[in-house]
Amino acid sequence: MDQAAVDSCQQFLSVLNVERRLSSNTIKAYERDLCCLVNFCDQQGFNDWSELNSHHIRRFVSDRHREGLASRSLQRELSACRRFFSYLISKKQLRHNPATGIQAPKAAKTLPKVLDVDQVSGLLEAEPKDALEIRDVAMWELLYSSGLRVSELANVNLMDIDLAERTVHVVSGKGQKSRLLPLGGKAIIAIRRWLSERERLIKTAEMAMFIGKTGSRLTTRSIQSRLERWRKRQGIQGRLYPHMLRHSFASHMLESSQDLRAVQELLGHSNISTTQVYTHLDFQHLAAVYDQAHPRAKQKKK
Full-prediction pTM beyond 0.85? Predict the structure, then answer.
């Protein structure tokens, strides 16, 4: 590439730093991504950015993919290229954005990690030693009972839980969507036990259901930290995070009910395809359903 073309990369990075005030780590990531693009252009014998078209960008992505770059990293590089080309267009150094419409290969969907029923029982049935652990058990029971996100758990207020009606009202879930969820019996017991301890800790008019020893609402980070502490205390191997209890709730509900739509509503998913990732049905079950439901699945006896 000509020096003027390379200099335009540095000018773009300077704009990100001075005008956009992006973090140093983000700017370094942009610099690495653009360096890869410059190297590609050098290999192709290009001198100016105007020589690039969509075919060349596809080849660039393909080459990076063959080098072993993960889909997410490819998506980030493409995003950096698009933004850089948009900058060149704004400076009238380029007429069209050659990266528009180019997609990175999709990453393979990974199944969420879940606990089995016995692991959940071992996690929830351990006896708490103090008031804060009583609170923790109530949180874990609520996460698993109703499939809450950790942010939703942190935002639960006293008036959102109706123990008589056995419900929890998620007032502002993901996308600011509200939903009313059932409460399980074990969760109700754990919450009642916590409420009696909460009265001793509360010092202000804090309405949060789950508070710390200072009397203020717990943050999502605090909840994650407490679950990690609980994992170590129980001697559970591997990672354990609040969303794993939501995953486990969804997986166990689907295994027992086979009602995808109901689980979608409980989880608050806008798209059922998001819920389908939790379908851990084995082939034998699917084959049995097929044999019972399909009109031409069974051979007629002669």
Answer: no
Please state, rounded to an integer, the average pLDDT across all residues of the chain.
85
Interior angle at CA 14, CA 10 and CA 20, nearest 5: 140
Distance of CA 37 to the CA centre of its chain: 30
pLDDT value at position 296? 63
**For the chain, what's the residue count?**
302
What's residue 270's pLDDT?
A: 73
Tell me the C-alpha distance between 84 and 42, whole Å: 17
Q: Which of 146, 149, 150, 147 is nearest to 166 (CA)?
A: 146
More confident residue, 33 or 173: 33
- Going by C-beta distance under 8 Å and a sequence separation of 6 or more, which residues neighbour residue 103? 78
Interval 170-179: pLDDT, tens: 886 565 678 8
Bridge partners (DSSP) listed for residue 211? 217
Burial bucket for residue 139 (CB in 10 Å: 0-12, 13-18, 19+): buried
Report how far residue 290's alpha carbon sits from residue 288's, in angstroms, rounded to the nearest whole number: 5
Q: Which two tokens stand for residue 276?
A: 């389908």
Query: Mind telling me the catalytic residues?
Result: 149, 174, 243, 246, 269, 278
